[in-house]
Structures are given as structure tokens and as C-alpha cells.
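Fill in residues.
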């Protein structure tokens, strides 16, 4: 058990909500967002190799993306609020097609661990958000990135924002059924 983090397994057990202990006073706050030994003790053993940062305006939805090479993510909203989603795209998994979501914000400081074999996406809940995330054990590669449509009826993510704004690429992404043949390695 960690005295720095609480690790909560969600309904799709491989996805973990990470709740860091935040120390605050009149000056502001301090918290650790990652400590390898605590994460390993909780079963998160990824070798994170890259950090990413995105900024999005109100009602922006990004996703649902994944890497065929198998890339895990540790996601947090460093500014603002998002609804963060993980969808199991491993055909051999008992939770295939199932999704979980959690609100991540600069107020709650929660993070979502999204393991390899999951599509990931988020929608901004307020005026805007900065999202930072670690990825590993592989680096991002254009040629292995895939996506499924954010509103795929076969998955049924219940996004809390009506009529979100998406990129042309995300709106035109295939459904999970349309890319099943690319997922046989999971």
C-alpha cells in the first residue's frame, strides 16, 4: 500500500484510476504524479519512454486512438477538466468492447492508467484543458497508430458532452468491427 497514491481498479480491471496524495496550503499544492516503485507495487510496470502534452478548447473530443505496437498511457489533466475513456480492443479479452471513463481535473489530480490493447480518448468538460500523458513501452509511430470512431454504436461510450467537436480524422475513423482483422495479435 502506498502512502503517496491510491490505486483504484475500475470496472474493466486492467484500467486503473490513480489518485495521488495532494499536500496543499495557502501557497498552493504539491503532489507526486509518478513514482516507479509505487506504481510497480500496484501492478503498473510499464517502461514509460515518452511524455506528451496537448491543449484543447471547450467541447473538443480527441480519440479513440491506440498503437498496434501496444502502447500504454498514464493520462492526467494538468489544467482544466476532461472525461477520459479507455476501450478494450483486445479481441481475446473477456472485457473486449467494454469501456470505462473517469473525470480527470486539475482539482482532483487523478490520473488514468490505460494499458496496451486499449483505445484512448477524452472530451473537454469546461473552457479548455491541458492533457499530459506518459506512453510506453514503445514510442509513438505514425504507421502503427489506429483509431475507432468516437461514437461507434458497437462500443457505446456515453460521452457527457452533447455534440462535441472532433477532427475530420476522428469523425471518419472506422468502427471496431471494421478493423477487427488488424487486432488479431491481442
Amino acid at each position: 500500500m502506498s502512502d503517496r497514491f491510491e490505486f483504484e481498479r475500475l470496472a474493466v480491471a486492467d484500467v486503473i484510476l490513480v489518485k495521488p496524495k495532494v499536500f496543499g496550503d495557502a501557497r498552493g499544492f504539491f503532489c507526486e504524479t509518478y513514482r516507479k516503485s509505487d506504481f510497480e507495487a500496484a501492478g503498473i510496470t510499464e517502461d514509460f519512454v515518452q511524455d506528451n502534452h496537448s491543449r484543447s478548447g471547450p467541447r473538443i473530443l480527441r480519440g479513440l486512438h491506440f498503437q498496434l505496437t501496444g502502447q500504454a498511457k498514464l493520462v492526467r489533466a494538468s489544467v482544466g477538466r476532461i472525461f477520459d475513456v479507455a476501450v478494450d480492443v483486445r479481441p481475446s479479452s473477456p472485457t473486449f468492447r467494454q469501456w470505462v471513463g473517469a473525470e480527470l481535473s486539475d482539482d482532483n489530480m487523478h490520473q488514468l492508467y490505460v494499458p496496451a490493447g486499449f483505445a484512448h480518448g477524452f472530451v473537454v468538460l469546461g473552457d479548455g484543458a491541458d492533457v499530459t500523458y506518459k506512453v510506453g513501452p514503445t514510442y509513438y509511430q505514425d504507421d502503427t497508430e489506429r483509431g475507432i470512431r468516437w461514437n461507434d454504436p458497437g462500443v457505446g461510450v456515453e460521452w457527457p458532452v452533447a455534440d462535441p467537436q472532433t477532427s475530420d480524422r476522428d469523425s471518419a475513423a472506422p468502427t471496431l468491427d471494421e478493423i477487427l482483422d488488424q487486432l488479431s495479435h491481442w
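The mean pLDDT is 96.
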